[in-house]
Each structure stands twice: as C-alpha cells, then as structure tokens.
Amino acid sequence: MWLELGYASPVGISASANPVTQSHRSSTPQQTLLLLLFLGSGCAALIYEVVWFQLLSLVIGSSALSMGVILATFMGGMCIGSLAFPRVVPPTIHPLRVYALLELGIAALSLVILVGLPYAGGLYIAIGGHGAVGFFFRSLLAALCLLPPTILMGATLPAMARWVEASPRGVSWLGLFYGANTAGAVIGCVLAGYYLLRVYDMSFAIWVGVGINVLVGAAGWGLSMAAPYTPHDEGGTREDVMPAGSSPVYAAIAISGMTALGAEVVWTRLLSLLLGATVYTFSLIVAVFLIGLAIGSGLASIAVRSLGNPRTALGICQCLLVGAIFWAAYSLSRALPYWPIDPKLSSRPIFQFQIDFVRSLWVVLPAACLWGASFPLALASIAPDRRNLGRLVGSVYAANTVGAIVGALVATLVLIPSYGTQRAQRILIAETALAAAIVLVPVLSRASGELIYTWKRVVVGAIALTLVRWVAGMVPPLPPELVAWGHNVATSKNNYGQMVFVGEGMNSSMAVSRTGDTLNYHNAGKVQASTLPIDMRLQRMLGHLATLVPEHAQDVLVIGCGAGVTAGAVSIDPAVTHEPIAEIEWLVPNRVAKLFRDVNFDVVSNPKVHVEIDDARHFLLTTKEKFDAVTSDPFDPWVKGAANLYTKEFFELVKRHLKPGGVVTVFVQLYESTEDAAKSEVATFLDAFPNGMIFGNSDNGVGYDMVLLGQVEPTQIHIDDIEHRLNRHEYAAVKRSLQEVGFTSATQLFATYAASAPQLQRWLEGAQINRDRNLRLQYLAGLGLNLYQEAAIYSHMVQFRQVPEGVFLGSAEDLKAIRSAKHR
Q1: What is the pTM assigned to this prediction?
Q2: How do 717-718 and 702-710 pair as beta strands?
Q3: Could you tell me the domains of the chain?
C-alpha cells in the first residue's frame, strides 16, 4: 500500500482541513460529535483503500505500472469529486445531510466493488493484455471500480465547507476536525494492516468499513435534524474561486502535494530496505506519515487564528521542508543503517516493530508535519471570507491532489528508475525551494502584484539559490550495503564483499556482490540467489525437476528470473524449444542475470528464451499459452506482494495453463520463516495439487529450503527412463549441470524426496490456506522475518516421511536408495 495517500486528505473529508471556516451554527456538543464522525470517516476510508489496492493488484498485477494506475485513479476520483460537487449539488440542501448521504453512498459502493470485482476482473482477463492495449484496460478497470466511491469521498470537502463560515473560533475547531479525520486514518491503516487482514480477510475488512460508514452517516443525519441551516447564495464569478493574486498559492500547494507524494515513494523504497519489505512495514510507514499530517495540520489550523500573513507562513513552511527532506535523506543514508540494531536478537516481533516505529518517526515525521501544515495555511491565504467557499476550498484541494498524483507517478515511473533515489531527493528539495520562492517573492515585493528587483533582492536570491544547491548537493548517495543487506546491514558491517552492481529499478532495488569466489544477487534487502553450493543446488533442482519429470517438456514457463540459474537449467534441456520468463523488474534480466552468465548458461541470450517484463500473475491471467512445465521462484513470501504467487487461486490458474502431464515446481524457503508460514505454503499447494510432493534441499544434512512438485494427474517418476535420458549425448549439459550441484545420478536427485500429501496430514493440521481474499501467507511470513528455525521446521515435517508405492518406478536398488535416504 505504498503511496496510497494524498497528504492533504487521506480520506474524503478534506474540507475539515480548511483552517479559517467555522460557523456558530452548531453548539460545542455538536462539534464534539463531528470530531467522532470525522474519526470514523477517516478509519473507514483507509480500510477501504488498503483492501481495494490489494484486490485490484490481484487482477491487474502488482507492478509499479499497475499500482500507478490504481493510485492515479483513486486520487483522481477524489479530485473530480471536490471540483464537481459545488456545481452539481444545490446549496439549499443541509450540508450535514449531504455529508451523511455521501458516507452511506461510499458504504454502498464499497459493497458493490466487493461483489462486482470478480465479474469486472473476468471481463478484464478476457479482453486485457500487454502494451498500450493492456494499459488502457487496466486503467478502465481501475476507473470502473474506484472512481464512484472516491468521487463521493472527494465531494465531502465542499459539502462541509458549506456548513462552516470564517471566524477566529472556527480555526481551532476545524483544525481539530482535520486532526480527528487524519487520526481516524491512522487507526484504519493500523487496524487493517495489523489486525483485520491478518486475522480475518478482505471481505470482513470491507464489512467493518461499511459498518463504520453507516454509523457515521446515521449520526450525521441525526445531527442535521438538530442543527439548523440557512443556505447562502453561492452564485459567483471566477474571482470567488481564483481571487486576485492567488495563483502563487495554488502553484505552491500543487508543488507541495507533488513533493509530499514523491518523497513518500522514495522513503517507502528506502525504509522497506532498512526495516524489511513486509506488509507490516508498509502499514507502519503510512501510519507514521499520517501521524505527521495530523500533527502539522492541527497546529497550523490553530496558529492561523493569530497569523497576520498566512502566505508568509506558507512560504516559511516550504523553506523548512527543504531542511526536513535533507534530514530524511541524510538519516536514511548516513545514520539509521548503522544504528547498532541486530533484529535477530528480538524475542518477539512486537519489540522489533517498536524499534521500526521509532526509526520511521525519525525519518518521516518532520517533513510530514510541515506538509500537513501547508494545506490549512494555503486555505488561509486565499480570501477565506469569500461567499463561494465550497468552490474555493474544492479548487485548492484539487490543485493539491493533482500535484500529489503527478508526484507519485513521476517518482515511481521516472525519477527512481532513471535517476535513482539520491537524485530524486535532490529534485524534491529543488521543487520545494521553488514552491517557497513562488509564495515568498510576491510577499516580499514592495507593491502587491509588482516585482521591483533591487540589488538587495538579487543578492538575497543568489544566496538562497546557492544555499539550496548546496543542501541538495549534500544529499548522500544510497549506500550499496543497504541495498544488499537491508535490515541486517548493521550486523553485516565489514562483511559486505565487493559490490559488482547496484541498481534501482521501477519496482525494486537490487545489487550483485562478490565475496571470495561467491557471487550474490541481492533484492528486497537480502540475498535472493548466489553461487554458494546450497543455493545453486536449489535453483538447479527447480529447473531440472520441471523438465525431467514430464515425458516431453517443450514449452516451459519460468516465474522470476533472478540470477537466471533456474531458467538456465531449463534452457539447456534439449526437449525445451520455448521458454518465456516472467520477470517484474527490467534490470534483473538485463543487468543481474548477465553477471551470472557463467553459471546460468547465458540464458537471457538463448534464442529459445523470451523475457516478459510483467507481474507473473498478470502474465498468466492474460496469456492463452499452455505449458508442459511451470517453475516458480518468486521473492520470499514475507516480501509484500509475493504471497500473491502462493495463493490457492494462483495455483489453480497455473493448473489451467498446464498441458496434460504438465508439471509445476515451486520454491519454498524455511529460513526467515515460521512453521505456520511453511505449513500455509505447503497446505495451499497441496489443496490445489492433491498429488503433490516435496523435495528437500538440505544444508549439511539439515533442512534449509525445498521444492514443491505437483501435477494434475497422479505422478509417476520413471527413474530408469530419466537416467537413460541423462546418459544420451544431447543431455550431456543437463547431466553435467546436475553433477555440479552433487547429483551424479537420477536416483540421487529423487532421493531428496521428503514427503507427499498423505503423510503430511498430521503435520498440516490447522494450517491456514492462503487465498486471494485473505493473503494469509504474507502476514504469517512477515512475523518470521528475523527468525532462523529452518532445521526445526524441516525435521517436524520429514518425521512423517514415507515413500509411497507406485510413484517412483525403477530398479529395486534405485527404490531402496530413495527409501533409505536420510532427512532431518
């Protein structure tokens, strides 16, 4: 749920951010009740947002492009609502009743999305695809689902602006309203990310949000019955929306929104490296960002009561943001990675979360407070006493939201992949300084609307420009060791190895390092593949099991390129003639895999190989190809988004793309995991492939990781036939590949058999199936980020090992070797 929030309004009730409009129409008890309504509204909206992003990512993919489409649609809907409401809804209707109806409408539409998304998703799958056509249909689906409720969210801003009027007393109350709204957003974010989705599922979370909306709507309607309302004339001219001299404020608040969301993109990328890219980390970062917005907006709303010139305050706020962005950049590169914190010492995840919360506050809070203060200061700067307040407030919010959309998309799709996080933060500093100049230069002019450039102003401007360039130039580069070792960077000090490559792509940051003779591929802040014997063995097992078990594996899909070793093992099988690789990040096959060409058989240059840059789930949903084998080696399941490739529905999707006799192999890690997470992975796979089995990859005889193998039909593995194939001349490369990782015969390869479904029933008792609607695995796996219990997990599983009759066919000697193989 990276970047899901427009900072000025995490939910629809942005009107409460107006710091200068509060009427005497309502009593203090009524205003207190409004605080509770705003709290509930914010809570429900963040619950919806978290769920909608997960639901849509399952259909259109979790790549940066897909998430950018979802984000732009979400925030664009709120922008449309804020602009359209005062032009569509007459001012004669009681604002509180309008607000109540909007809340009820949001609840109703949320239920429609929950029920209707499978049908809309099915339509997208039938006609969607890749390239420009695929982008169009992704956008169409996102618009179909998100625009109706988000337009209603955005419409609450001008609705509440009609209820309030300018007065000093209103400043304090409106600050409290916005603070309560944002506090509700914090609660919703934490509630969804840490409890509702971890314990229940997305449907339950939606119903909780609906219940909150209904309560808020009912209370708002009841309050409207007790609060009299006298409509005022909203007829006006363009001057009511764009007062003279307001253009600099509009420009500044748009740039402020742009830098806020751009910074959230950058800092989420860096903090996820430092803290671990789990679903809990993303929820934590968003929550901290919202806390800062609430604090800043509340304080600024109170302060404008006594401010003589809010435009000056807005400009100063942007100046302070230059320092706050630099503070975050410096902390992320020069301070926090080297705090003496060893996450493996934590006895319970809650203790590590506490430390992560402090580190997130350290980075995000200063700037978030200032961005939160910017919106009420902007409103206070633009003639708050004008009669057409609904249109005025809506237009300011729209400028802010448009800026936020541009900032998030440009940072994700352009700045980070093209320039890296260091330059991206330098650009953010320059943009913030520009916003400050746009506001302050007119204020400092001798006459309103007239700029008189004296030598003093030239000197001051030159000094300011030099200072900004100096601050931007001081932003330190991204530490390569942070990319490589992530949350273990402090404990890995002096053991980083030689960095061969560091890259920041559209979806992730990666590195390749060399330690002695070992080459390591790092992504998500950890080693994902290496040339260590244990890792080479696993990668080759994934590829060779996928091609050797079927009688004739001609078309083979590889999910996840990584170092390319698994894909390379597939490519050298002479039966394989077509090998697509689904990889979400362009830099991986084009830079990383080429550095491993000595061990991956230069797979990306193989003419039978085609790399498809796409989320693997989206690729399978939109392709009509069928395969003799599918082998999957995704990120660790604790990495946010990886659990999408371990759900029952995904495995069923793979089954539909298998030819008769086809095989699927899947990587399952046991290190940095919990037994509950491992059980969930195995149980979910076996639920889809009841004939499935497990092959273990041991480290010095102790469990380390494993390969799941499944077929639709009952599996029969002819050991002698496979051995005969390996002894043929055309299979010499395959035989040599197996020998390099310790398998001198087919018997040795299949002696790694660890268990199959019938023997695992007792071990799997109580295992939670990972489904699309709960994504249970990412929450279970996220709790095991810093645990190393692989030996115990594997030993608990293989105690039930028994070789079933009729699965392995071969000589008595071969079968005896498989049955007597030791696993622990």
Answers
A1: 0.90
A2: unpaired
A3: 14-227+247-473 (1.20.1250.20), 529-820 (3.40.50.150)
